[in-house]
Amino acid sequence: MTIRGRVWKYGDNVNTDVIFPGKYTYTITDRREMARHALEDLDPSFAGNVQPGDVIVAGRNWGCGSSREQATICLKEAGVGAIVAESFARIFYRNALNNGLPAIICPEAAAALESGDAVEIDLEAGTIRRGDDTWHFPPLPETALRLIQAGGLIPYLRRELGTTRNT
Amino acid sequence: MGKTFAEKALARAAGVSEVTAGQVIDARPDVILSHDNTAAIARTFSSLGVDRVRHPERVAIVLDHAVPAPTTRHAQNHAEIRRFVAEQGITHFFDVGRGICHQVLSEEAIVLPGQLILGADSHTTHYGWMGAFGAGVGRSEVAALWATGELWLRVPESIRIVLEGSLPLGVTAKDFALRVIGDLGADGGIYLSIEFSGSGIEAMSVESRMVLPNMMAEMGAKNAYVPPDAVVFDWLAPRLARRTGRPVEECRAQIEAGALYPDPDAEYVAEYRYNAAELEPYVACPHTVDNVVPLSEVAGTRVQQAFLGTCTNGRLEDIALAAEVIRGRRVAPDTRLLVIPASNQVLQEAMERGHIQTLIEAGAIIGVPGCGPCMGNHMGIPAPGEVTISTANRNFRGRMGTREAEIYLANPAVVAASAIKGVIADPREL
After folding, report:
1. pTM, rounded to two decimals
2. Distance from the CA of B252 to the CA of which of A33, A137, B44, B198 falls in 20 to 30 A?
3. CA distance B135 to B119
4. Nearest CB to A166: which of B46, B137, B220?
5. How far is B373 from chain A (nearest CA, A)?
6. What ipTM, to 2 d.p.?
7. What distance, in Å, lies between the first and last C-alpha atoms of chain A?
8. What is the C-alpha to C-alpha distance for residues B196 and B200, in angstroms, rounded to an integer?
9. Do B49 and A163 make contact, defined as CB atoms within 8 angstroms?
10. pLDDT beyond 50 at A167
């Protein structure tokens, strides 16, 4: 699975409240509308300019704070192809994989990459490329890859349970 | 090698004899928690093509995040949840006004020591106060849990935080929690289980103990743990007896038998030791919870709003502390003091003891038990440019509704003193 896009670079401890404001938690339920508020309180230019496949690159503890899954869904729906960070908050990390959004821990790439860089990520090989530069990350565990390939936990589980979607 | 609390609790939850940190297991939680987010989870659950919740008796739902409903949208959300609860025969359901989920499940003794609770709320770490394993998960994961009853978890490594001695006058569990987060950083506990111990912890009331694991979510912890003792068993037993109709003694014996303790030779990735006598009141400054300074450094900062409440510090002990500071005084002009008890039981007890009277006479506003303005939903949203001092657990930019507001976090006495002075103030100087 290969992801190609431009880098949006952010810092440490980016929390779920600036990724998706809590005030919308019970009033915005449409995924497209969630995407329009992605990173609203951190980078107002993001939602209008992000392109499919673009990659968020961040420092330590991306996604700390709430368990709200909208913080993952709004990014996925906005077209984000992957997030590369020094480390992730644990609930965000689970939510990302469960929504089919690759969350990649690679401190070297997270430090070196800059906004606007064109990158290519190979999930199976565990590589991030920018021109002639290559960084390696431990390939995602098989469970995580399966979840991402299935499009997330729910479609994965639907297949496992052998049920058909009734909504 | 001995086992940590996390290793013991997750082995039990996985139904195996032992597990080791780093291992991935399929855990079967005793309790699965959700709140106002239940309607969204129910829609995801429905998309799985499963009709019935597998173990409805393990599901607990508390409406607390926006209660009573502030808008038609919120009311529709609550109505959808009530329909789902009725359809699925969920008995652990608590409607608006009962209180905040973590307080209610504690008061109802629905979670017990040694058990596993997974909740679609990041502060599910809370249940560590009684020695239960509580971890936050996402909405999709709760839908999956409703369908299958189990979820994969990685057994976390553990760190130990020891507090020895007694806290000086005016220094609370909240100050200790803030100090730890300030020292270790917002990612200092990431993926980890945090075990508290020491004479300083043993000396704490149940209500103070609740603050610690609740706040450890702000350090990224997977769960946190306080060793359960007689204080905890005595607190839970009559509550379990009331809910189940069984004798108190029998309930107490059952609770005690379920308690888990780490082995003396368990392995920790780090240990931090604190001397309670050296602690002082602390404040977390905007806009991160680990931006912690001694109270004296920010004293004098103008505040427009003081908020006492949330799952961190909205209990009787906290309200009593604030009432003691405020008795016979008035909230400062151009300052609002908002008090939201963590549950209706807390509210009732605070009324019986006269604390609510004291607070109202001083000019405080009393809200309906629930989460209130903590996450920017309603009932106390600051205006752009305003400063709030709060007993909550988060001060992220935009948290209370507008990115143009500042949030300081402090203990209940500091919040009360600041309401009186109109500036961040030290209650010990009043």
Report:
1. 0.96
2. B198
3. 6
4. B46
5. 9
6. 0.93
7. 29
8. 10
9. yes
10. no
d(CA A77, CA B146) in angstroms, rounded, equals 25
Residue A2 sits at the chain B interface (C-beta within 8 Å): no
Mean pLDDT of chain A: 94
| Chain A positions in Cβ-Cβ contact with residue B134 (cut-off 8 Å) | none
**A128 in helix, strand or coil?**
strand
Q: What secondary structure letter does DSSP report for A62?
A: B
Partner A contacted by B60 (CB < 8 A): no
Q: CB B141 to CB A153 under 8 A?
A: yes
Report the first-to-last Cα separation within chain B, whole angstroms.
Answer: 52
The torsion angle over the Cα atoms of residues A139, A141, A145 and A147, rounded to 10 degrees, is -150
B137:A99 CB<8 A: no
**Could you say which of B120, B124, B144 has the minimum Cβ distance to residue A157?**
B144
Mean predicted confidence (pLDDT) in B57-61? 98
Give Cβ neighbours of residue B91 (< 8 Å, ≥ 6 apart): B56, B57
- pLDDT-derived band of residue A165, with 50, 70 and 90 as boundaries? low
pLDDT in tens, B303-360: 999 999 999 999 999 999 999 999 999 999 999 999 999 999 999 999 999 999 999 9
Quick check: B313 and B345 in contact, CB under 8 A?
no
B220 and chain A: CB distance < 8 Å anywhere? yes
Nearest CA to CA, how far is B36 from chain A (Å)? 8
Tokens, residue A40: 């609203």
Sign of the alpha-carbon dihedral angle for B291, B292, B294, B298: positive
Task: State the burial class of residue A129 (Cβ atoms within 10 Å of its Cβ: 0-12, 13-18, 19+).
Answer: middle
Among B36, B190, B376, select the one facing A87 at the smallest CB separation.
B190
- Residue B75, chain A, CB below 8 Å: the answer is no
Residue of B nearest to A28 (CA): B73
Best CA proximity match to B24, nearest among B41, B10, B34? B10
Angstroms from B377 CA to nearest CA on chain A = 5
B107, two tokens: 């008061």
| Residue B339 pLDDT | 98
Q: For B257, which DSSP code? A: H
For the CA atoms of chain A, what is the radius of gyration?
15
Cβ-proximal residues to B5 (8 Å cutoff; 6+ apart), any chain: B131, B133, B158, B193, B195, B225, B260, B261, B262, B266
CA distance A100 to B138: 13
User: A124, A1 in Cβ contact below 8 A?
Assistant: yes
Write the pLDDT tens digit of every residue in B60-92.
Answer: 999 999 999 999 999 999 999 999 999 999 999
Tokens of B411: 């203990």
Question: Looking at chain A, which residue has its C-alpha nearest residue B378?
Answer: A23
Amino acid at A36: R
Give the C-alpha distances (Å, rounded to integers) separating B99 from B49, B63, B106, B107, B234. 32, 8, 11, 10, 22
